[in-house]
Amino acid sequence: MPLDDQTPGQKPGEARQFKVVGTRPLRPDGIDKVTGRARFGADMSAPGMLIGRVLRSPHAHARIRSIDASKAEALEGVKAVVTRADFGAGDDDVADILDNCMAGEKALYDGHAVAAVAATSAAIARKALKLIDVDYETLPHVVDVDAAMKPDAPVLHEGLSDETVPDGVSQNVVHRVEFGHGDVEAGFAKADKVLERSFKTAATHQGYIEPHACLATMGTDGIADLWVCTQGHYMVRNTCAAILGIDQGKLRVTASEIGGGFGGKTTVFLEPVALALSRKANRPVKMTMTREEVLRATGPTSSTSIDVKIGMNKDGKITAASADLRYQGGAYQGSPADMGSMTAFAPYDLENVKTVGWDVVTNRPKAAAYRAPGAPMAAFAVESVVDELAKGFGLDPLDVRLKNAAREGTKSSYGPTFPAIGLEATLQAAKDHPHWKAPLGPNQGRGVACGFWFNFGGDTCVSLNITPDGTVTLSEGNPDIGGSRASMSMMAAEELGIPYDQVRTVIADTGALGQNEVTDGSRVTFAVGLATIKAARNAKKVLCERAAMVWGIDPEAVEWADGCARPAGDNAGKFPPMSLKEIAAIASNTGGPVAGHFEVNAEGAGVSFATHMVDTEVDPETGAVKVVRYTVFQDAGKAVHPAYVEGQFQGGAVQGIGWALNEEYIYGEDGRLQNPGFLDYRIPVASDLPMIDTVILEIPNPGHPYGVRGVGETSIVPPLAAIANSVSEAAGVRMTDLPMSPPKVLAAIQNG
Amino acid sequence: MSQIHVTTKINGDTTEYLCDPEETLLDVLRDRLALTGAKEGCGTGDCGACSVTVDGRLVCSCLTLGAEADGCEIDTIEGMADGEKLHPLQQKFLEHAALQCGICTPGILVAAKSLLEKNPSPTEEEARYWLAGNLCRCTGYDKIIRAVMDAAEEMRRAS
Amino acid sequence: MIYEVPETVDSAVALLSGATGSARILAGGTDLLVQMKSGVVEPDLVVDIKRIDGMKSIAQEDGGWRIGAAVSGAEMGEHQALCAAWPGVVEAMELIGSTQVQGRATLAGNLCNASPAADSVPAMVAAGAVVRVAGPDGVRDIPVEEIPVKPGKTSLGKGEFVTSVFLPARPVNSGDAYLRFIPRTEMDIAVVGCGVSLTLDEAGTCTAARVGLGAVAATVLVVEDAAAALIGSKADDTALDKMAAAVSAACKPIDDKRGTVAFRTHVAGVLAKRAAKIALARAQG
Ligand SMILES: Cc1cc2nc3c(=O)[nH]c(=O)nc-3n(C[C@H](O)[C@H](O)[C@H](O)COP(=O)(O)OP(=O)(O)OC[C@H]3O[C@@H](n4cnc5c(N)ncnc54)[C@H](O)[C@@H]3O)c2cc1C
Ligand code: FES
Ligand code: FES
Prior knowledge:
The complex is a heterotrimer of chains A (752), B (159) and C (285).
Chain A (H helix, E strand, L loop, with lengths): L29 H6 L14 E7 L5 E7 L1 H5 L3 E5 L12 H7 L4 E2 L5 E7 L2 H9 L2 E6 L6 H5 L23 E9 L2 H7 L2 E9 L11 E6 L5 E5 L4 H12 L6 E5 L15 H11 L3 E4 L2 H7 L5 E10 L5 E11 L8 H8 L8 E8 L14 H18 L4 H8 L18 H10 L1 H4 L6 E10 L4 E9 L5 E5 L7 H13 L6 E5 L16 H28 L6 E4 L2 E4 L10 E2 H6 L8 E9 L5 E11 L6 E11 L6 H20 L30 E6 L21 H13 L10 H9 L2
Parallel strand pairs in A: 1-12, 10-11, 14-15, 18-19, 25-26
Antiparallel strand pairs in A: 1-5, 2-4, 2-6, 3-5, 7-15, 8-13, 9-10, 9-12, 13-14, 16-24, 17-18, 17-23, 20-21, 21-22, 24-25
Helix pairs in contact in A: 7-8, 10-11, 11-19, 12-13, 15-16, 18-19
Chain B lengths: L3 E7 L2 E7 L5 H8 L18 E4 L2 E4 L12 E3 L12 H8 L9 H14 L5 H7 L11 H17 L1
Parallel strand pairs in B: 1-5
Antiparallel strand pairs in B: 1-2, 3-4, 3-5
Helix pairs in contact in B: 2-5
Chain C lengths: L1 E3 L4 H10 L4 E4 L5 H7 L6 E4 L9 E4 L2 E5 L4 H6 L1 H6 L1 H9 L3 H4 L4 H6 L7 H8 L2 E6 L2 E6 L4 E3 L2 E2 L6 E7 L6 E8 L10 E9 L5 E9 L6 E2 L1 H7 L6 H14 L10 H23 L2
Parallel strand pairs in C: 1-3, 2-3
Antiparallel strand pairs in C: 4-5, 5-10, 6-7, 6-10, 8-9, 11-12, 12-13, 13-14
Helix pairs in contact in C: 5-8, 9-10, 10-11
The complex binds flavin-adenine dinucleotide and FE2/S2 (inorganic) cluster (FES) (2 copies).
């Protein structure tokens, strides 16, 4: 039975002709979402439900001497108060997560949770919070990454540094990583020019519009249910179970519709607290965060300080490159210093390269993943230096990148050797695009930059069930954050040879499938897609067996094509094809219901590259920057639903624009966040932007049956650098400090 | 604390409720009337996810007291489709893939509808400025603006 | 909290005067509700003035315009005659917040919130607006710049509230304009704001000018030196540069999350010049 990676009739090496994949059908959850009936995290209620609220530290760093909640507990309507004392020790694996959800000995940042209440109304809960007395001993704090590394910096955690950390730096430095090959010093010695520059990037927040929300119900028997907006309800289940000391199997988690995540909903904040409150009150507890809480206490990305040194010859050839990248990841270890360092030089084929990354803790909220975690800052620094060198030699910055581009067979700066990749294709497409040749107006500049992301695979389960009337239901375990149900239905329909509208994809709760990795790393269309295709193939195998049974021939003599079982050749016998519907109708009489499922730790995700091109205009009198034109060139492997691929490109580019120009965490001298709201945490609004043009390249990923690569994250990697290169040209001065807010740009212009 | 009795028309239906004096219209809609289509993205007027119209005027329901709605007509996303017929904006949002996560979508649709009622032929720039109070973090606004412009054109053709 | 919806000015004054705890006027609520949400204010009494007779009207009076305290920005923007008379004041009001905020925000609320960065206030100052205040002792009219006394604080006494704002009759050959600087294109609070109003004679010489400046001091500034630089000139580049210098010199800003002292001081001059050019073009018709 030809059920492998080829379509019947397709010759090896020939591009597959798709019927459904590559089209733009309407998404199956669309009507729910345009009519307001889709249920997001905060849209669920339960009978007898209480409202939970969190008390948060006003101090950046303080020892918690004691907490007295007796007055709050005595308030009418208050049904439970929890503090750290209500949680057990928990597993070591989740110790930091627990401490982040509910502070133990110390409050480590402004906004750190210290207690929570559940009451019969939000108003009572708010009132109760004011009645909780926390006795703090404030401690010196540090929020800047370079300051935190100094030997005399205030220390957050004693003895956290591991063996990779050299002497002479603060204990706030948790870990040091190093990647590379060749001899950079020898390489620099050979260069016509060596340029070294230092860069800074501010912390930014994922900025999803939906605040965290959940509804928890837990009995004293440990049986629990949780409704939550998350990027991974299996992760929520496992983490909460470990924190609360219950069995994973007893906690059923259902993912709500999710109002954005971008990495920020790949961990837990409220969920264990809501469960603990529910257990204590023995009633359902709903918790939602305010926007202020989201910004103060959930995952921003790291702020960074980066030095890059690159040697280049007159012809544009890079002889050596090195970078030292310092990432603060907030109050706990685990900044994306490692991934950022790995990505820094990934777009280049380098003989001599060395990257060093530092993971540093500071008195800020624990950094959470943000779209290609760590990569945009590294690309900003590296691509700025490449640009400056290229322009210094009077070379075309795209040519210089093409000259040094990583390609199939390149040993990457972080170790592995690349298979077929699409970087050159994006650069070539950029060069050929009318945007590259379009004239620029006064005070305008054009910038380009490349970006790389690994893409992930991971644990994945899909169950594909065929109903008696021959429609298909597909259960997957990854929340649909931007149209992935549509893509799964499309791949299932493609594989089964049936119309798209005959497949309905649902996001199953944790009781229905095995373990699923969170929706992150741009893994879903790749890994869940792969599992969907394999599950469909397994179902087709059963369908063929049933037809064989009816026809009384060998199952091996039946093939599946165009939605029907057919005799594989003339020798197999002459039978009219049996459609999926026909086989489904007799499934009960031929052995029972038909289904296919597939469980895998998906590998072969296929790295992805993009090149961005942007024109900006700078007002020389005020430093204001306007983005006037933007084009994204990115390799998608195979664009399953091109409209949603374009959407990922556009969304990533615009988040990058925000990061480059105006978004930043601003801390006062007191270590408190000064801009915990959308008025002063300035994400781009519609009137700030032009249309974002996209060019989808398709260099098939050999690791996926249809060639799919993840597309979600790469799109945020190049914009910081592309915009910096553009603004630097427009302003006539190199910008090395993000965000390039008007005061900084104006000062740079005035200081030349 | 005594509650306030309010009589309104919501999406054309007379609706009465009791609310606390400091309760916002958004809380009333979501928590008392189970109209959860309007979302709370910020609660402070910055994101537009809670957009509704009060007596035909586009407002943030998070910055309106429930008590203020007495005697007013309120329209929410739940009233936008006419029975089984989607509003052209809703249809165009689907066709243009103008939503990714969809949390901003109800607010943007309500705001865009109010734009087209006031200005049936907005320029792209006018549409962008009108919608500047509706944050979308997923799409970069490109497809949203295209969907609004396309819906405007279709509605002009139909009228 | 008690919520009241009086129907007359007198009953509003009585409610405010009789309040035992903290009392607040509710107009559009776009400041008040934000402050209540964050717990910055927790009023015991909220008096909604939107149903008081006259609060929602824009009426011509002595050649000028009287704008009721509950008129929203959107309503001002839709009033063509008002837009034609005082385009700078209307555009300042319309810069406030989003379309949604415009649906509710009021001129009087912007003023009485007493934020140094309030957009409409420098424009009203430039326009020479006069505010009508009702209170236990009756009604009084006061210049707009006398309302804010420090951030978050007005000169209004207990029981008093603003019932309307009066924009005087505009002389012929006059124009006004307001510009602000914000990092984005919308949805930001002014880093600097500047309103300019000027009048020309037949020969094109500036005979009267007022310059209001926001977000560069604890309250709105009336920059007399800047006005003096314009008066008697043809508002040519030399005069405009002099005016810009006077504006920058008047700035007493702070460094904060929205901008630095140096940035605000420089940009105030830049904006003043740009706003004056628009006002000039309007005055020239
Ligand atoms: C998202 C957003 C964006 C914003 N952007 C801007 C901006 O760009 N520029 C800007 O200047 N402001 C901005 N604001 C603030 C606000 O919208 C304006 O200040 C608005 O004009 C306030 O008017 P209001 O009618 O809503 O005031 P309210 O909130 O009703 O009142 C404000 C204050 O004034 C008092 N008050 C109101 N009316 C009277 C009266 N008649 N007499 C005495 N006291 C009174 C109230 O008690 C309260 O203390 C923004 C607000 C939001 C939520
Ligand atoms: S929730 Fe009302 S504007 Fe954000
Ligand atoms: S689609 Fe997610 S915020 Fe707009």
